[in-house]
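re the bet — no i am not wrong, look at it urself. input seq straight from the record:
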Amino acid sequence: MGEKRSNHTVYNVNYHFVWCPKYRHAILEPIKDSLEVSFRNVCDEYGYEILSLHISPDHVHLFLSAHPKHAPSEIVRTVKSITAREMWEQHEPFLEDYLWGGGFWEESYYVGTAGNVSTDTIEQYIGRAEHV
C-alpha cells in the first residue's frame, strides 16, 4: 500500500466495505470461489485495487484502494450490481431456493475510510470482527 499517482493526483484513498446477501442468508460459502473471481474482475475493470477480500457465509469484507474521483457510493453500487448479476447467471438454481425477485445483496452497506493502514492491520480487524 502507499501513495499512488495519476496524471495530476497523488493519493492514498482506501475504503473498507461490508455488506450482506439479501435476508442475511448464509449462502456465500458454496459460491465463494466464483464470487471472488467476480470481485477481482470488477475491481480490475474499474481500476479499484483490492487490498483484502474476505467472504464469510453471510457477509463480505472488501478493503480496496481507489482513485479519489470515485465516490464510495459509486464503488459499492458498481461492485454489488455486477457481482449480483454474475452470481445469478452462474448459480441461479442454487440461489432461487433462498432469494426471490432477482435480488442478491442487501441495499445497505458499511463503509469506513482508512488512509495509511497496513493490510495486516485490516486482516487483524476482520479476524476480530468475525468473532463478534
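see?? The helical segments are 32-46, 72-95, 119-130. told u. also The longest helix spans residues 72-95. so pay up
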